[in-house]
Write a structure and sequence with these properties.
It is a single chain. Helices cover about 70% and strands about 0% of the residues. By secondary structure, the chain is mainly α. The chain has one domain. Helix 2 crosses helix 10 and helix 6 packs across helix 7. It is globular and about 60 Å long. The termini are far apart.
């Protein structure tokens, strides 16, 4: 649990293999890096595949229906996305921006993102948050048990080089070689690489990558995002739904799995790259302070995403606001399971359309 908690603090929602509490002498197989790698892949498959399969199936259903722009249930899915993101902002703000300095940093980050809604702006906001945290926020050390890394240092260095190499090289390859599949892989890899905090924070990045080129309509984007709240597993599996709706000259299943692998690949590389150096990094007070600032900036980024595109797409009439407020109350006050809130809100949207 300690290992997973500290790696989640690094900002990547990827599970890592748990280490047994006691390793009997003579059982060196536990230290075999191949077993750790296999365990990591198996954990990822078990964690992501159920929701990925469900969302790919949903993409098939939406494609069969055809034009869904006026469907009441679609409006309900858009509205439930408002409630879910509002709930996420509320929870993250209480945990990551609980005091005046960090709350102020979150507000400044949100204002900046609302004025300049680009991927570059998000990187600048995160870097600025880290710099402000390093210089101004508390540097109290927190005791934590050391982690025994199954990854050798040279493997970690190779993973970091690959991470940045793909981030810089894929756009050049897509520009020079062309090809829809390469452009799609580049877009989803970049979205996974540039987001910090995971989950809902990836929403504006993905929308900027897939909607303007016409790969998928904004209505279907928000509908899929709402549907993603009803399935188990990480929110990044939303990429499987998007890939299934993009024409890559392959089957929808293959396209969905292709984009799913592309968005998770940066997390794999960063986990492997950071693991051998994590004990050293977390013992540096300045690094911990920088993370405080970065986490506060992530709250601001999510707050900006709550307004655009989530709120502006879904809340266009008082009835929609009432439905969203009801969904938020069910999530935040009554603690109703998200999948049930999704079903109820989609049904409510359909009922409103029939009035």
């Amino acid at each position: 649990m300690a290992r997973r908690a500290h790696l989640r603090g690094y900002g990547r929602p990827l599970p890592v293999p748990a280490r047994p509490r006691q390793q009997p002498s003579g059982h060196r197989r536990w230290n075999d890096p191949r077993r750790h790698a296999g365990g990591g892949v198996a954990a990822w498959l078990g964690f992501t595949m159920p929701s990925a399969i469900a969302l790919i199936g949903f993409a098939y259903g939406v494609a069969e229906i055809g034009d869904v722009s006026g469907a009441g249930w679609l409006h309900g899915l858009k509205v439930v996305a408002v409630a879910v993101v509002a709930h996420a902002v509320w929870g993250m703000a209480r945990n990551l921006a609980p005091d005046r300095p960090r709350a102020t940093l979150a507000v400044l980050a949100a204002v900046t993102m609302l004025f300049w809604q680009t991927a570059v702006t998000q990187i600048i906001v995160i870097l600025a948050g880290g710099l402000i945290g390093w210089r101004l926020l508390s540097r109290e050390a927190v005791a934590a048990p050391p982690l025994r890394s199954p990854v050798r240092r040279w493997v970690g260095i190779v993973a970091i080089v690959l991470f940045f190499g793909l981030l810089a090289g894929l756009p050049l390859l897509a520009e020079t070689m062309g090809g829809q599949s390469l452009r799609v892989f580049d877009s989803f890899y970049r979205s996974g690489a540039l987001v910090f905090g995971g989950g809902h924070v990836v929403l504006p990045l993905l929308q900027a990558e897939v909607v303007p080129p016409g790969w998928i309509t904004n209505d279907r984007f928000i509908a899929g995002y709402g549907a993603a709240q009803a399935v188990p597993g990480p929110l990044f599996t939303f990429a499987a739904y998007l890939g299934s709706g993009i024409d890559t000259q392959h089957s929808r299943w293959l396209s969905g799995l292709f984009t799913l692998a592309a968005i998770f690949l940066p997390s794999f590389l960063l986990i492997v790259g950071a693991f051998p150096f994590w004990n050293s990094l977390r013992s540096v007070a300045a690094f911990r302070s920088a993370l405080l600032g970065i986490n506060a900036a992530v709250v601001g980024i999510l707050l900006a995403a709550f307004y655009q595109p989530v709120w502006t797409t879904a809340i266009i009439a008082p009835e929609g606001f009432a439905l969203g407020l009801t969904a938020f109350g069910l999530l935040a006050v009554w603690k109703v399971r998200p999948w049930l809130v999704v079903l109820l809100t989609a049904s409510g949207g359909q009922a409103l359309a029939l009035l």
